Amino acid sequence: MEKAPDAFRTISEVADEIDVPQHVLRFWESRFSHIRPMKRGGGRRYYRPDDVDLLRGIRHLLYGEGYTIRGVQRILREHGGAFVQNVWRVGAEPPPPLEEDAQDAAAEPAEDRAERALFSELGGTVRSPEDGFGSGENRRKLETALDELVACRRIIDGVLQQD
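RESULT FIELD:
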């Protein structure tokens, strides 16, 4: 049974709907103060339709447009949540030029730079199945592998910093 468009969604429903792992959604909550799902007893998250649109916009800017986390934070600060909620839609106002994001990259935390580097090493942006990338299942497998590689990279970076 499909939910109404204005119904609240659980984290697993949102993760499936926008094709991003649940742990990435939790990570984004720590990086983007605009993401504020309702939390019930036991910490269970419920996302409003506007929250889902915001997450789609963040995903589009990070994976589709190549912005850094700091770049998306700047867009949220300068253009607001409503802009990001709609930036992924066909015919929406385009995001500001990516060149402005380069100055943010230098100040980006090492763990975010490592994640961005891995994405670029694997061909730049993560494309959707509609772009001819393959099945959603193949994409999820690749994203899981990428998440594991990012975790390995963070462990290695941590060990290297200790030396």
